[in-house]
Amino acid sequence: MNRMAKAALLTRLLIALRNHGSWCGETHVQKSIYLLQELCSVPLNFRFVLYKHGPFSFDLRDELTSLQADDLLTLQPQAIPYGPRLAPTVGAQALANRFPKTLASYGAAVDFIAERLGSCGVNALERLATAVYVRRQHPEASSTECAKILAGLKPHILLENALTAVDEADQLFLETRLQPMLS
Predict the structure, then answer these.
(1) How many CB atoms are located within 10 Å of the residue 16 CB?
(2) Rounded-to-integer distance, Cα 91 and Cα 4, Å
(3) Range of 137's domain?
């Protein structure tokens, strides 16, 4: 997928996330893109590593900065202690109109992720995205084993919350496999 098609899809994702209650800080965008790639196989090709608050892509961070420089995204400051929101500009919305096939191909996946993540707080996003990361690394492990691995990687996450996150991740994997439009 070329850079402008990715930008159009990112614009669609930001709008969908906002429509589902997200304020679209970078954490929401990072975790949403990660899950869009991992659960729905959307070929955005951002490389993610496990970082401070779960899967993180330095490539995606650079791309978000580039899209701001290209006047396709803007930062909207928020009251302290919150960081800024990312918002598509008029130019980004016009760009999205140039990629109707891309948006049609991946629109259901974007809507699925936005619906599931839009109202999540950053702590829940960290737990869920990390659970997906762990499950990808250990597909044959039991839920309890995955939860112990997650809690070992993220000691601030209680084992009980890690187990809930692994169960939620497994449910998302199941849902995306059952819906052909998402794969």
Answers:
(1) 20
(2) 12
(3) 3-182
